[in-house]
């Protein structure tokens, strides 16, 4: 699906149209992921990159990728030592 957005001409002069399209897709993917409306994999797909690149983009934008507390992680890891 395509969505048309009207932008002022002076704004478009700063970037080529493909760059603007990519930036908009990445921004929307970040927003959807941050709002927990899509998974990490789906957000990466929307952003047009692989999961690892999207995780890096999240880090640059200070969006946590792993949503687990320190205590939850320690509890999870404690189960491995008992095996």
What does this structure look like?
The protein is mainly alpha-helical. The chain has one domain. Helices cover 63% and strands 0% of the residues. It is built from 5 helices and no strands. The relative contact order is 0.09. The model has no long low-confidence stretch (mean pLDDT 90).
Summary keywords:
single chain, elongated, 83 residues, 0% strand, mainly alpha
What is the terminal-to-terminal distance?
49 Å
Element pattern in H and E: HHHHH
Helices, by number, come to 5
What does the radius of gyration come to?
A: 18 Å
Sheet with the most strands, sense and barrel status: none
Number of domains: 1
Number of strands: 0
Which range best describes the helical content: under 10%, 10-25%, 25-40%, 40-55%, 55-70% or over 70%? 55-70%
Determine the strand fraction and express it as a percent band. under 5%
Q: What does the overall shape look like? A: elongated
What is the typical, i.e. mean, pLDDT? Answer: 90
Poorly predicted spans: none
What structural class is derived from the secondary structure elements? mainly alpha
Could you write a compact summary of the structure shown?
It contains five helices and no strands. The chain is elongated and about 60 Å long. The mean pLDDT is 90.
């Amino acid at each position: 699906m395509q969505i048309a957005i009207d932008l002022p001409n002076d704004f478009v002069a700063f970037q080529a149209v493909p760059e603007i399209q990519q930036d908009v897709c990445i921004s929307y993917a970040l927003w959807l992921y941050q709002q927990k409306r899509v998974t990490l994999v789906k957000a990466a797909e929307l952003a047009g990159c692989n999961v690892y690149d999207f995780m890096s983009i999240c880090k640059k934008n200070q969006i946590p990728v792993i949503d687990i507390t320190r205590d939850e992680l320690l509890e999870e890891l404690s189960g491995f030592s008992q095996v």
